[in-house]
Amino acid sequence: MSWAVTEKPETKSPVRTNKEIQLGRLAMKPSTLERIYPSLGEDYSRPGILLILRVILSAALLGVFYFAKLAEDINFILIVTAAIICGYDIVLGMVKNIRDRVFMSENLTVTIAVILSFAISRGAEGVMALLLLQLSYMVRAYALHRTRAMICEGIEPERKTLKGLDTVEKGESQNQEYPIGSSLVVYEGMSVPVDCVIKEGSGTVNLSFITGSDKKVSLTKGDYLPAGSVCEEGQFVAEAAQLPENALYRKMASILKSGYGEMTENETVWRKRTAYFVPAAIIISLVSLLVLPLIFNISFSETIRRIITVIAVASPCGVIISIPMTYFAGMAAGRNAGILYTHATALESAAAVKAVVFNKPGTLTDRNYLLKEIKTDRMDSTTFLKVAAYAAAKSNHYLAKAILNAFDENVDTAIVEEFIEYPDKGVAVSVEGINILLGTSEFLHENGVEMPSGSTNEGTTLHMSVSGRYAGFIAFNEAIKQDAYTGYFKNLANSDVDRIVMISGDSREKDRQVATELGIDEYYAECSTEEKILRLAEIKERIEKKSTLAFVGDCECGEKLYEAADVGIMIGGVACGEELSKTDVVIMQDGIGLIPSVIRLARRTKHFVVRGAIFVCGIKFILLALAVMGYVPLWFGLLIDFSAALAVLLACTGVYLRDSSE
């Protein structure tokens, strides 16, 4: 059986700024990204008045060039002036790109196209290209900002939505703050303003704000009540457990906002593929420069005009920029369904899951164990239970809680000394100078306790020794969770999962009964944490190479088990608090019902990513072909290219909107 690690202090990772996140994903300097990746919508600011005036003035000069009948010299001065006013910062950006060895930016390709346009006396087209690029940057930045803002409103709504609905009527201030440890009364119909722990009372609560499910949850003394939950029935006296800025919903939002900054494999692949766009455009241009005049008798200036369009639309930025935003939309859709993908790579890995391994306690069976039997030859059962309660008093393990609940008397922890908890094994304590061991049979044997024959018991058991002598054991009952029934595993198999496995530290006979009842063919019993890790490695070796393995556990599972899997999925996130970021995916509900949704949402997000990238690349290839044939002028090619990239960027919200409405 598994004995949980004692609670560790929170370790905070260094705070990464938006620029640092971008650098980690793209390995570029911030100056390279300011226009290509305009903060992915995080730090949006409206276009400055100067930029707007520059665009308007350049457009006006271009209009004068086309419609006023002026001398050729004056027209040349007008068009050069328009180009300088509109595009000097684009040229500076190109210089920075070259200095930083970045050769795929739109600054570079459009600047080259503009220079060539002036070289063949088509400067007006070059100015139109600069105007289109500036406008596309402004529209793209705003689209990124609005897309991200819309998604963020779903994962972290305004604070006013969390105010108690009845606080004014009950004589409290609507803006009252609750410091940690302060008491508050939660009435029926009230939205809880802060994360708190119930001290008195019982009733039902709607946790849909956190879990994504409208199902009412029964809570009582000792249960955690997160901010944003609504009391449906009953009344609670609760104690504030967190400041508002540390509320559970804010932690979830913080994880989402930082987690999508990691570069996914899909983004890496598409960056590598699109890195050939600019070199390919150059090759096409050189071949066209030789072939078109010699074979098709096309003039040199017309050949250059076609080449200009080929070069201008070669930048792959439109393909790349939508990928992280699409993953962010998928993560946000999961949040609204009660699924927390802690980083973008977790969402990507979940799309390839082919094997799911369930840690039986807490996922398939309920951890709210009840004492089944006490067997001892050294003392009466009441005394045995009292000694066991003192040994377990300082542990947070679910079996320790079961012992304390069965004892149902106050335990004087002041006399409990030298408490040591051994992960996956048990505890060693000294009570008024008497040494007590409580844990697995292997744990007692390792500490020199002679185990009598027949001391083991089928199912979940804890053994105890007093002063080095074996004292007996406690057996526990476990109940199968309801959401593991009703065709659940058939539904999971329909999600294209090939292998469903159960793993446990309990006896073979007990696990056989559970596996048979649930219809699970493959299970492994009597496994320590190390053996579970080895089993996970063996299962991973037997699935397809590009597939991934998911391990499903709860808060009691050690971090090593989640790390051993390709995708670690933790259920019961409401009760996990500080443990949210220790695994890849967190299901906020205390149940396995959303595992198929974890996989399906990940696959849908990947589909959007691939479809969007193929769409933009397809438009580029068509434009390149038409440009070589002379059907697409520079301004029209850029307009279509920018529009396709913008359409894909906006389409990524389809992941969020579709899944949020389901």
Topology overview:
Elements: H1 18-26, H2 30-36, H3 49-67, H4 72-99, H5 106-119, H6 123-155, E1 183-186, E2 196-206, H7 208-211, E3 216-219, E4 224-225, E5 230-240, H8 248-259, H9 265-274, H10 277-295, H11 300-312, H12 317-320, H13 322-336, E6 339-341, H14 344-350, E7 353-359, H15 360-363, E8 370-376, H16 381-392, H17 398-407, E9 416-422, E10 426-431, E11 434-439, H18 441-446, E12 460-466, E13 469-477, H19 488-493, E14 499-503, H20 508-518, E15 522-524, H21 529-541, E16 548-553, H22 559-564, E17 567-571, E18 585-587, H23 595-629, H24 634-651, H25 653-661
Parallel strand pairs: 7-14, 7-16, 14-15, 16-17, 17-18
Antiparallel strand pairs: 1-5, 2-3, 2-4, 2-5, 6-18, 8-13, 9-10, 10-11, 11-12, 12-13
Helix pairs in contact: 3-4, 3-6, 4-5, 4-6, 5-6, 5-11, 6-13, 6-24, 8-13, 10-11, 11-23, 11-24, 13-23, 13-24, 13-25, 14-23, 16-17, 23-24
What does this structure look like?
The chain has 662 residues and is α/β, with parallel strands linked by helices. The chain folds into four domains: 18-154 and 256-326 and 605-661, no CATH class; 162-252, Calcium-transporting ATPase, cytoplasmic transduction domain A; 338-366 and 480-593, HAD superfamily/HAD-like (Rossmann fold); 370-477, Calcium-transporting ATPase, cytoplasmic domain N. The chain contains 25 helices and 18 strands. The strands form three sheets. Strands 6-18-17-16-7-14-15 form a seven-stranded mixed beta sheet, sandwiched between helices. The protein is elongated, with a radius of gyration of 32 Å.
